Amino acid sequence: MARAAVDDGIETLAATPHVRDDYPTSATQMEVLVAETRAAIEGAGLPLLLLSGAEIALERLPQLDNAELRRLGLGGGHALLLEFPYSGWPLGIDDTLFRLRAGGFQPVLAHPERNAEVQARPERLRGLVEAGTLVQITAASVIGHFGRSSRATAFELLELGLAHLVASDAHGPAIREIAMGAAADAIRDERLAGWLTLEVPRALVEDDLIPSRPERRRRRGLRRRRD
What is the DSSP string of 74-103? Predict the structure, then answer.
């Protein structure tokens, strides 16, 4: 995966292992394994910086105190990557995200474009975004590897200004390709692609202000379709 990332032009990558009931990864486990993997990457002479971080299931949050959450933040910062479910609208998500923000965290929702409720009504995310939550879409969705609905919803979120990052969400060399370069090309807007893949992620891991979004050039001929 590290070699594939470098080949795709990536210089910095966050680990983001799952933290959920079937993968109950602790901050200590994540930190130890990130250090081992970072050493292996350096030993291989690959020009890739590996950062700490995790992808946390919403239902797992009540079991984690603020100290643990800070260790699981992207790059060791205050941004928390939260796994959005693939079906259903999470009950109490407004209150959950409010409590995180009140605790000094920046919530980032992972892959909501793959959720059937969001596909039916992407505008449903607007209230969460306007309250301060960021949205991350997956590169594989942008290039159509998850089907027409996920791809069309990803682009609609971009058009609506409800997407802030694109990430690989790669799980392994044989499970999901990095595809960041292909996703950037598919967006067909170099400034916007740079904002989504470089400027916003950098601001998050550096605990900096999110830069203003460049104006989106409207794509023509793309219609949303359900699979």
Answer: GGGSSEEEEE--SSSPPTTHHHHHHHHHHT
